[in-house]
Amino acid sequence: MDSILQGAQLVESFSQEKNELILGFILNNKESFYIRATLQSDFTALSFPESFARSKRNSADLFPFLINCKVQSVHQYENERAFHIKFKNSAILLFKMHGNRSNIILIPKGQNFQLFKKKLVIDNNIDLLSLERPIERSEALYTAAPDYLKFYPTFGKLIKAYLLSTNFGSLSTSEQWIALEKLVDDLEHNPLFISHLSGVPVLSLIDYGDNTQALSNDPIHALNRFYRAFHTEYFFEKEKKNLQQQFSKRINQAKGYIAKTEAQLVKLETSTAPNQIADIIMANLHAIPSGTTTANLFNFYTEQNIEIKLNKSLSPQKNAENYYRKSKNRRIEIEKLTENILNKEEQLIILQAQKDSIDQANTLKELRSIIKTSGIETSHSNQEIHLPYKVFTVQSYQVWVGKNAKSNDELTLKHSYKEDLWLHAKDVPGSHVLIKHQAGKTIPISVIERAAGFAAYYSKRKTDTLVPVIYTPAKYVRKKKGTAPGQVFVAQEKVMMVPSQGPQSDT
Length: 507
What we know:
The chain is of the alpha+beta class. The chain has helices at about 1-5, 130, 140-145, 150, 155-165, 175-190, 220-270, 275-285, 315-360, 365-375, 405-415, 445-455; strands spanning about 10-15, 20-25, 30-40, 45, 60, 70-75, 80-85, 90-95, 105, 115, 195, 200-205, 210-215, 295-300, 305-310, 390-395, 395-400, 420-425, 435, 465-475, 475-480, 490, 495-500. Strands 16-17-19-18-20-23 form a six-stranded antiparallel β-sheet. Strands 4-3-2-1-5 form a five-stranded antiparallel β-sheet. A five-stranded antiparallel β-sheet has the order 6-7-8-9-10. The relative contact order is 0.06.
């Protein structure tokens, strides 16, 4: 690089991908020369593309202080993974190639440092002189302190694995010194190789590792080939496998949802209709004592006895009215479940088509196009979206149920709107519950009762026959400073008594 860049003029310095810097030079012979510095946590390397088409979008100019400056020299720091380009205006561009701590630092004369990775603030205090690490090496010194890493601190994982494979540690210090001298001679005279260590491509000066491929002695050619091997081939296979797993998971989830919802629909359609239960109650008003929770009555629709659940605080006639109301809701829920199944089946078709496209993709460009259209996250940001609540649907209303005390705070304070209805089992620990408001609509009492059932179920009163549940618009719920997770203050509230009903309960 020193011989190539002396006198060259820097005409471009920009980044259009995170952790990647492009430097474009005009050489003395008027040809273009590009340096691509890739500083990813799992891949730190230089490459030298013959040309580079800069994107019109998502591209940012960096180090404008250096533009149109000419190169004076390139300096490699002794026994260190760092070098710098010195410009004729005395500015230095330092390349610190330290794995996941790699950085590029502009050091203008008499001015503050400029960091490519601004989060590595410690690099603002870097001392260039400290990067020089001259090491005196002799057999006598090694025999006195036989630690090869102190003599050759830049030996990487592949060299260490190679020495381990040769039983280097079991040799005498004299034999170790001879082995090290031979290794250094090989490193200085061997061609470059691409091999694989634990499945990951590595660039090496020794023939060791899996699937080793010899390259030319030209380091620029070797680095470009290594960039393609790692960034294009390895990343492609890794990302493709990751996407295949993610889409398979989505497909299985969709199939599971369809099966579960179909079972719920069959159960709903084959169970005794609430209006029939109401008819049975009305026909037997005289036979139902007040304050009872169940009644065993003759079902004249099936000509068999049926056990009917009752709210003991209501009269038999009021219980019948509740069942008539539930009958209307049952029809709506059947329609909604059917709609959900059809929507999920449509989604499943799309997911399967996208999965087929991934299976057939042969380039990163094709994969990234699928990622863009599918909305799925890549392996570089592959974190599941955290929701602090469970989601249920009751008559087309979304009901959100907090997962734990900390999630309760997050649900109530960050995910609620003032028009949402907030519910909680009275005077006991339990989940916060929200019924999401729908513009222009009043939440039906049957939806509130069902959501209250969730609040009762996800509380310490889960096993009680009837549970008092408070409900109020979310705007009346506040959290006082210093209170424990999940603790809130409710300014106004109403209370209803409901049975504890979890997700599997009949609605």
